[in-house]
Amino acid sequence: MEKVVSQINEWKSSLPSDFEQIQSYAIHIKDSIPTSIEELQPGIDYVKSITTEDIIRDFSEFKISPITVSLTITAFTTLIILTKVFTGNYPQDKSSKKANKKSKSKKKPSKAQKANKNIQEILDFVESEYVPQIDEYLHNHKDLTREELEFKYNYFEEMLLKELVKLDSIDVTGNAILRENRKKVIQFIQDHHNRLDKFKKEAKF
Q1: What's the angle, vertex CA 149, arms to CA 148 and CA 152, rounded to 5?
Q2: pLDDT, tens digit, for every residue of 84-113?
């Protein structure tokens, strides 16, 4: 009995474990098939001489014969292939993999989403970059010389104007919400520009 189990384990270990090995195994079997009647005849005669009772007896007695070996290997190989197919491990071709990859990839943002993102980025940039500097400039202006006051005023004026030009270049045609959002950001920037203008008139430089 131990000999039979050992033999079965040996067959099992020799069976292919993935699809590429199965393909290679199939090609090997195909190449080993006789191509002429003369080569096939001995095998045909042997198979004809075997009865169903012989096959059943060989299996029941764990007798190793060409028929039992062939049937066992065929059964194991078929089982492996079916397992691969039904468990989803069957290899996909490149086109299928690309299609799956595309379906999983994120959808590209729409034109409106891009425009809204650009508007928000300009607002965030002005709030974080220029507003604190303008606040500091207005608060500490007494510590600056006239030349420094003029230089910083011109710098802020130019930078704020630059952001207004960016906003103006964003296409919001046909979208009332985007148009309103852009208008609010423009007003926000203009409010800080007005602060600078008011300060300039008061400081008289």
Answers
A1: 80
A2: 656 655 455 555 556 556 655 678 889 999
Return the domain boundaries, the chain.
2-104, 111-203
Q: What is the pLDDT of residues 30-43, one digit of tens each?
A: 565 555 556 556 65
Q: How does DSSP assign 41-78, residue by residue?
A: HHHHHHHHH--HHHHHHHHHTT---HHHHHHHHHHHHH
The CATH code of domain 111-203 reads 1.20.58
CB 177 within 8 A of CB 199: no
Prediction pTM value = 0.50
CA angle 60, 66, 68 (to 5 degrees): 30
